[in-house]
Every structure is written in C-alpha cells, then in structure tokens.
Specification:
The chain is an alpha/beta fold. About 30% of the residues lie in helices and about 20% in strands. It has helices spanning about 20-25, 75-90, 110-115, 130-135, 165-175; strands spanning about 45-50, 55, 65-70, 100-105, 125, 140-145, 150-155. It starts with 17 loop residues before the first helix and ends with a helix.
Length: about 180
C-alpha cells in the first residue's frame, strides 16, 4: 500500500490550557439526547439497592442533583468513560447535594471481580436490567443528570469526547438554580 503522506508534513501536538479546552467544548455541539429520556421532563422514579445494600430511590433524592449512568462490563465505550466519570465524582466528593448512581446490567459477582481492577466510584446498583427496561433503555452507556426538582437536565447515549463536560455543566447549572 502506498503512503500518500507528504514527506515534509509534520504534526504538532500540544496540551491545551483549561481555557482552551473550555472554548473547544463550547464550540462542539452537545451530545444528542438518548431518546429514552427528555430534557425538561420529570424522570420516573425507581427503587433499588446498591451493591452495599443501601436503598436508592429517586423520589427520596429530590433536592439533590442525581447523575445516573447505565452500563455493563463488556461495553467498550462504557469502560472507556469510567476514568472520566471518576474524575467528576472526585470533583464533587465534598458536595452532599450531588449523588452519582450507576445502574449496571451485570450481576454482583462479576461486578466485584471487574471493580477490583477497574474502580468505578459511583454507587453501583447490580443486576440492573430491570431498571434499564423500566426506561426502555437499550443503548449503553447512557448518562442522565436529574436536577433538584426531579427534572432531566441532560441525557445522552454512547460516549462522546464532550459527554463528561456536559455532565459537569449540567451538574453546575442544577446546583446554581436553587
């Protein structure tokens, strides 16, 4: 196969400043809505238990910003976004008004094995296919930010470079709107 690249061509790689990254994200279109949720509409509640046996019920989280992630272990884009999502959890670690919940389709045994080498710092609900089905969800990962009033602020399926940025933007806007 012939290489069509000019011998004198070069590529320059440099790290962008935070302001440059912010400007780039603002120029990018937001990720497309998932089709399973509608921004501006109330989300239907669910009741589950996380892997530590703690109850998770959306209606009990009114007054807090809730970030939901629907995923499964053998989903490459789900695995790719985990480190970025963990950074978001770290940024809000001291804010009790932000709750991160991951609904995993996998069973507890498989999740425990996976999480030993791949930490995911959300509260994780195992065996979550029932909850995904409640929202007719069938594309992963799907991320949802629910504001303090129980209204969907952001939702998107798949993984895009700017998904974590939009999640953070939605969290910050929801926190600011008291």
């Amino acid at each position: 196969m012939e290489n069509n690249r000019d011998e004198n061509s070069a590529h320059l790689i440099y790290e962008m400043s935070p302001a440059e990254k912010e400007a780039r994200m603002l120029r990018m279109p937001p990720p497309r809505e998932s089709g399973f949720f509608v921004n501006g509409e109330k989300i239907a509640s669910f009741k589950a238990s996380d892997m530590n046996g703690k109850k998770v019920q959306l209606k009990d989280l009114i007054g807090k910003v809730v970030v939901l992630n629907f995923w499964f272990i053998n989903c490459p884009p789900c695995r790719k976004e985990i480190p970025e999502l963990n950074k978001l959890v770290a940024q809000y670690a001291d804010n009790p008004d932000v709750v991160f919940v991951a609904i995993a389709l996998d069973e507890r045994y498989d999740l425990k094995k996976f999480l030993k080498d791949n930490p995911f710092n959300y509260r994780i609900v195992d065996d979550g296919r029932y909850y995904a089905n409640q929202y007719n969800l069938n594309v992963y990962p799907t991320n949802v930010v629910v504001d303090r009033t129980g209204v969907v602020k952001f939702n998107a399926s798949g993984y895009a470079l700017n998904t974590p940025w939009w999640i953070k933007k939605s969290i910050d806007e929801s926190l600011a709107a008291k």
